[in-house]
Amino acid sequence: MADVHDLEVEAAGDAGASQTVPIQAGSVKKGTHVVLKGFPCKVVDVSTSKTGKHGHAKANIVGLDIFTGKKYEDVSPTSHTLQQPVVTRAEYQLIDVDGENFCTLMDEKGDTREDLKLDPDNDEVHAKIKQDFGAGKSLLLVVVKAMGQEKIMQSKELNE
After folding, report:
1. What is the assigned CATH class of domain 20-85?
2. CA distance 16 to 159
3. Which of 8, 24, 51, 60 has the fewest CB atoms within 10 Å, i.e. is most exposed?
4. Architecture per CATH, 88-157
């Protein structure tokens, strides 16, 4: 039998962190994030109906997909549990944009990544980033991550 000290444990980088956490439908408020129809959404409207014949008040939740802006709606009893996406926001300095619109980004520790792509044809924010970077401006990009997806959401000009 192997000694306890001889065991090796390999863990993923996220240490098994969940991409969503439970939230009760009755506690969802405007401005919070919730998963609607399988998409991470920011809630723009919530209304509740009175208790019906079968004894459950219903929450009518309307949200916009945080990545595409598409509108989703869901109706759920206020006592039921919904999923709330874990949304993280990070800032990176833009170092380069290559010919295929992949960005070289650097975090505050000096680590770089090259896996995010701009879509200047379909996204006004991305078109402005490409234009500003081409004009020689130093930019700080805001990247939002939720449910395994990441997207560059905005840029700020660095004042050096």
Report:
1. mainly beta
2. 38
3. 8
4. Beta Barrel (2.40)
With CA atoms as reference, report the closest residue to 40 among 145, 126, 136, 152: 145
pLDDT digits (tens, 9 = 90+) for 39-68: 999 999 999 988 767 778 899 999 999 999
Tell me the CA distances in angstroms from 119 to 64, 106, 129, one per residue in order. Answer: 20, 19, 10
Could you give the CA distance from residue 144 to residue 108 in angstroms, rounded to a whole number?
A: 16
Q: What is the pLDDT of residues 63-118, one digit of tens each?
A: 999 999 999 999 999 999 999 999 999 999 999 999 999 999 999 999 999 999 99
Here the tokens at position 87 are 């949304």
Query: How many CB atoms neighbour CB 121 within 10 A?
Result: 8
